[in-house]
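ok posting inputs for the beta-D-fucopyranose job
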Amino acid sequence: MTVQDAVSVQALAARLGPHFTLGVASAAFQIEGSLAAGGRGPSGWDAFAEKPGSIMHGHSPAIACDHYNRTPEDVELMRALGIDSYRFSLSWPRIQPDGTGAFNGEGLDFYDRLIDQLLAAGISPMATLYHWDTPLPLERRGGWMNRTTAERFAEYCAAAGRRFGDRVAQWVTLNEPVSVTLNGYALGVHAPGRTLLFDALPSVHHQLLGHGLAVQALRAAGVKGAVGVANLHSPVRPATRKFTDRLLARVFDLMMNRIYADPILLGHYPKPPLVARPWFRSLGKIADADLRNIHQPLDFYGLNYYCPVKVATGPGTDHSPVGTTDAMSRLHFHTAAFPEYGTTGFGWPVAPEHLGILLRELKDRYGEALPPLYITESGASFPEPDHVSGPIADAERISYLAAHLGHALAATAPGGIAADVELLGYYVWTLMDNFEWAAGYSQRFGLVHVDFKTLERTPKDSYYWYQALSRARRRGQATEPR
Ligand code: FCB
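and the output
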């Protein structure tokens, strides 16, 4: 570790409250592999990944990190890392292969073992119930475009709650419904590869309904843990002060952020600017009973933050977080680059100060309705070799993480711009390099390098940096007067 890194460790550790959670996050489909093993059924992502041209370099998720067979090794990596909590996702098609009806004992046993191993290692489990792997039979019937998926989802959540509810400390219903709708149903760059543009909006409502029904199902199942959701939030800025840029930025903010958070936290959908109303027609008339179901009290709110988004008038494909598609050229706006910021391997702007600004924005929008908050994902990919021997000097990742955690802590500290936000913890995306959806294995986000030929895991410098942070904080606590 460089002198500078050691300084950032000490400075950050000194600002972490005694109960602040440090964690790492992952998702089943990105790490497990063994897609046809242990009684798992296929998911919409399995089918999408098989379509030629859908995944960069034709990479296959079939093995990924082989985490399904290497769980003890991965839990040991986390134990040695010293984290408090691990956010992972339960694979719905591993637990309930058809998405309805019978449950798969082997799948349930797999997560039972994972949870028990985590607890034995002193790591608290945070389980996400849906991180994008819809069982294929449900996807074939329309997936989230079909309202009944919400009911099926709640049934599966109830079963997971009954089985794991005595040991899971935090439950996350959905991960980033916005990514599912935008990338999956509107633009077609993710599974299921549909290009419905604004006609994809029913998938928003059905996911939100699934969330609300799941919260109720978990509580009815008597889970001991806290219940929340993980939403991606990207602060949206207009490319210029021009009226149309500002108007379209408002529309984009609504599509990106508010259409998810408002119904969940406030119990109603945001109103689009008058001229944009026709675009939102496919949402249809929403029943009050649905809004009541969606608007459930939450124990925490999960915030995934990667970068801000800039919106400019006119169709175009000059910049997109996850790739481009012809469908984008049929829109009246596009996302534009931030020349003032450096970028990650994905080309995403590195803008840590926007995390503080975002926390302020959330409190301004939701006030008392904003529950205590975890940053449930934060991290970056940078180009790294596929095969390594010896240490991996990922200084850019260390400074990315230090800056983001630093801005979040500064913003929420007394006197900070978001001092009234209760920040409970921070989860790095991600423990180890993995299958980054449509980008295949081309984007390495891990604290641990994975060689996808040998499956060897090699901790990067950022792993040792996070470990030092966790240790420095613990030492601080031990000597702290009570
Ligand atoms: C988030 C996803 C996560 C991963 C990171 C890089 O949007 O939740 O699975 O792909 O981006």
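notes: The radius of gyration is 21 Å. Residues 27, 30, 175-176, 179, 232, 304, 377, 429, 436-437, 445 surround beta-D-fucopyranose (CB under 6 Å).
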